[in-house]
């Protein structure tokens, strides 16, 4: 069979995506062209098409390019299907048995946290975090656990301005600098927490799950009753150890690496 004239362009576009995926920081168009030995005009054309489709993000202030949200969603779609949920459910049940709290498996879908699976104790706690529920990703611990493992450019693309933030209870980040400060702290700590950001009187602890390239693809969390009038500064390290162990086991089960 003859080769379509579109195939070389497709191959070059995929090469750009692989190159951007292998770099921690965004790249200039000239650097991309030089690394892949492509004409600059071809490189700019391919980058424009990939940006239009959402697979590449252009950072105009830096005049650089990084992976776009569509690449993250495509990668998440691969692991968030039924096998991921099946592999996670026994781990969630184990968390419920050991902690007595409701356990969730969640992913990012754009700027929202989407819950794929939930296991709960015999006595429910009136939670609204059912399977299929979407929440602003900056608020729940599961959303920020994934965000904390993403490049800063992707986080900025998700939350470009104050309008991207949602306030449910008066708590939680309301600006990009505030979110970045939380993510930096949580990345250093190794787990994410939220105390009344989503629903008053409830708190959560979450840890992220990684794919084979070490990228965050999901998060495991537990949610429990906790009433705190102000910033209690609780980080629940013992509970976090249980959650991190479950997230680490799921990472291993899908062939990922932390």
Structural write-up:
- The chain is 44% helix and 19% strand.
- It is of the alpha+beta class and 258 residues long.
- The strands form two sheets. Strands 5-4-3-8-7-6 form a six-stranded antiparallel sheet. The chain has a two-stranded antiparallel sheet with strand order 1-2.
- A hairpin with a 2-residue loop joins strand 3 and strand 4.
- Helix 5 runs antiparallel to helix 9.
- The longest helix has 18 residues, at 82-99.
- The mean pLDDT is 88.
Q: Calculate the mean pLDDT score and round it.
A: 88
**Helix/strand structural class:** alpha+beta
> What is the count of helical runs?
9
Strand percentage: 15-25%
* Run of helices and strands: HHHEEHHEEEHHHEEEH
Weakly predicted, low-confidence segments: none
Indicate the topology.
Layout: H1 6-22, H2 29-36, H3 40-53, E1 56-59, E2 64-67, H4 69-79, H5 82-99, E3 102-109, E4 112-119, E5 134-136, H6 141-147, H7 152-158, H8 176-189, E6 192-195, E7 202-210, E8 216-225, H9 237-253
Antiparallel strand pairs: 1-2, 3-4, 3-8, 4-5, 6-7, 7-8
């Amino acid at each position: 069979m003859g080769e379509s004239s579109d195939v070389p362009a497709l191959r070059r576009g995929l090469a750009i995506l692989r190159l951007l995926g292998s770099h921690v920081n965004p790249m200039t168009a000239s650097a991309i062209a030089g690394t892949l030995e492509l004409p600059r005009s071809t490189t700019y054309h391919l980058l424009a098409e990939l940006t239009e489709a959402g697979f590449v993000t252009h950072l105009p202030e830096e005049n650089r390019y990084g992976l776009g949200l569509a690449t993250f969603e495509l990668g998440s779609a691969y692991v968030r299907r039924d096998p991921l949920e099946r592999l996670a459910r026994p781990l969630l049940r184990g968390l419920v048995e050991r902690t007595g709290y409701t356990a969730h498996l969640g992913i990012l879908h754009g700027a929202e946290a989407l819950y794929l699976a939930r296991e709960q104790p015999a006595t429910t706690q009136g939670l609204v975090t059912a399977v299929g529920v979407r929440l602003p990703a900056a608020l729940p611990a599961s959303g920020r656990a994934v965000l904390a493992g993403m490049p800063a450019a992707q986080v900025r693309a998700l939350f470009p301005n104050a309008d991207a933030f949602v306030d449910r209870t008066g708590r939680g980040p309301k600006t990009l600098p505030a979110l970045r400060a939380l993510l930096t702290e949580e990345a250093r700590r190794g787990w994410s927490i939220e105390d009344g950001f989503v629903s008053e009187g409830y708190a959560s602890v979450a840890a992220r799950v990684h794919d084979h390239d070490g990228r965050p693809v999901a998060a495991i969390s537990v949610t429990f009753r906790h009433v705190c009038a102000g910033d209690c500064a609780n980080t629940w390290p013992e509970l976090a150890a249980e959650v991190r162990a479950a997230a680490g086991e799921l990472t291993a089960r899908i062939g990922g690496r932390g």
